[in-house]
Structures are given as structure tokens and as C-alpha cells.
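During the reporting period, we have paired protein sequences with C-alpha cells. One record among many follows, to show the layout:
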Amino acid sequence: MNEFEKIFDEYLSGQGMTTTMQQRLITRAFFSSGDSITAENLYDMVHQDAPNIGIATVWRTMRLLQRAGLAEEQYFAADGVRYEKRTPRIHGRLICAKCGRPIEFETAQVMPQLRTIAQKNRFDIEGFDVSVFGVCASCRNGSHNRGNVN
């Protein structure tokens, strides 16, 4: 059992619930996936190995992972809700306006400027989300179609 599964189990236990095998499979698939994933893509991953898992179970499990502090929803115009692992690492996203693909980047270089702006405006930063919209190289060059993007 990995660290994320332990945290999830502890959260569910604190809510008077136990972890089901379906939830465990969804959790493992989520944490082995890339930077972000849709519920539908996650369903496709787990349904191959466990055909008894329905899309509603994936949605419910993702809501529980959010409440446990292990996942967060991000909304993208191109494909709606995507889920990202919640980590202490601070990052931003470059989001393609055509295909909706998010490309993560570290925000360490941006943070000093944000602190300076906040200080000038007498503002205490509690958190931030950096999303930059544009067109990715693949869409600009026409080298992929939206159906192949995760």
C-alpha cells in the first residue's frame, strides 16, 4: 500500500467508511496516471481490468479523493473537468485553447514577482493558481488531433 492509499484509507476511516476494492483500483490508476486526467479516461483505464466498475463509481471516488485532499478538479474549456494529484509542489499550467491539453511548469521563478506585487498592494498570499492560455506547438503545426490528447 502506497502513501496515498494510506491517507485515503485514514480519511475514509475517519468518515466511518471502509475502502472498497473498486476505490482502491481507481486510486491506484489515478496516482499512476499523468499530470491530469478526466474521469472518462480514468474509467477507461480501470474498466479494462475491472468491468464491474461504472463511471459513477469513478466520479464518487474522485469526489472522496478531493475531500481527502489528494485530488483537485481543474476546469478546461476543451474537455471540462480534469483531475490532478494534489501535491505540495507549486506549479502552473500552459493550457492549449485548441486541444485543451495542460502542460505543467514549475512556478519557482514566478513566485518572487508575485510576492513583490502582493507586498506593494499590502496583500497576504495564501495560495495561487497560474494558468496561461495559448496554442500548443502540436495544434499550431496540426500534428495531432484532439481525440489523442490526455
